[in-house]
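idk why but the lab printer keeps eating my pages so im just putting this in chat instead. protein + zinc ion:
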Amino acid sequence: MKRNYHCPKCYGILNPNVKVILKTECGGRTALLLFSPQPGNYHVIAPESFPLKKDDEVRFSCPLCSRDLTSKRDKSMAEITFSTPGGQGGRVVFSRLYGHHETYFVTKEEVRSFGRHADRDGVNYWGAGPKD
Ligand SMILES: [Zn+2]
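predcted complex ->
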């Protein structure tokens, strides 16, 4: 089942095909990066001219409207929204640190965490739903 990812500001679709496209800024440079739409898959495609090191803090923005996707709830995270054909939807919250594998899918009902650094259980972090 295909999950669509959207910009929370302009509602533009961020995964027109098999990858999620985000504009990324780090150290004064900008690039488009491709991410896997599969939760827990952290393979990133970046241009060779845009080398990223572990723990580099990157700023994600929408490739369509250019607005900043940094989470208002936690500045160390970025946020986009998702929807499924079944009508389910919610937010995807992920770390802004390169190599830091921490992702949460937040819906009204639950928070599902992915990635080996996603260790914030016990904290009902976004005030939404019980932990998985
Ligand atoms: Zn946008």
